[in-house]
Amino acid sequence: xxxxxxLKVRGLNAWYGESHALHGVDLDIAAGxxxxxxxxxxxxxxxxxRAIMGILPKRTGSVRLNGRxxxxxxxxxxxxxxxxxxxxxxxxxxxxxxxxxLTLPPVVAKGGFTVEELxxxxxxxxxxxxxxxxQLSGGEQQMLAIARVLRTGVTLLxxxxxTEGLAPVIVDRIGEIILEMKRxxxxxxxxxxxxxxxxxxADRFYVMDHGQIVDGFAAAELPGRMxxxxxxxxx
Length: 235
Ligand code: ATP
What we know:
Blueprint: E1 5-16, E2 19-30, E3 34-38, H1 45-53, E4 58-65, E5 68-69, H2 75-80, E6 83-86, H3 98-102, H4 115-121, H5 123-127, H6 138-150, E7 156-160, H7 168-183, E8 187-191, H8 195-201, E9 204-209, E10 212-218, H9 222-233
Parallel strand pairs: 3-8, 3-9, 6-7, 7-8
Antiparallel strand pairs: 1-2, 1-4, 4-5, 9-10
Bound molecules: adenosine-5'-triphosphate.
Adenosine-5'-triphosphate is lined by residues 16, 19, 21, 39, 41-47.
């Protein structure tokens, strides 16, 4: 049981037009935790991240960050409050160089990483500073997407399938970056299909089905549940 939640989500509903995608999602994340959201394709994992961030046309319920209600709060204030979202499609500027991506906008938000700090954390991005987004590998694009969000001053980082389509050695590198974020006190909520990766970084798991959270357990319980989970998730 969590004594005090950094993020407290209650009765979160979300719609795409008439299509009702989330049906009362409840979840809690304590400060400093890394939590992984599991579930079959289409159950609402991405929608949960979008609905927490507030980049969906319609949502109801409650999303509290440090006690502050984020539903009804404009996106720029949500970002300023410390929520950062890296979408599956990564959202980098493909035609700009790495350095241009990392200096746009030029002012670093309060609590955000400077370009020098980002280069220290992501040495490959420093090497590739003059390369355009289009010339980067999938792993470099993922790192750039995370680095861009870290400029905004993130308390809670939302990551949607950060390892998708990446080679194992790059997956390990992304894992190291998440563990480094954790050492720095950042809280992370990620959607992930890669069990090996998820078990390396996560403290806790939630399982989704049909737009709801249907299970939750600590990382220590993962090995004992693995077979049943794999069957339930169809992996
Ligand atoms: P995946 O791993 O395949 O991304 P997911 O668990 O993240 O799955 P969501 O992407 O959140 O699932 O989708 C939840 C439901 O909402 C699905 O039925 C999906 O078809 C629908 N949906 C997702 N995005 C949109 C959209 N932009 N417009 C309409 N319906 C959508």
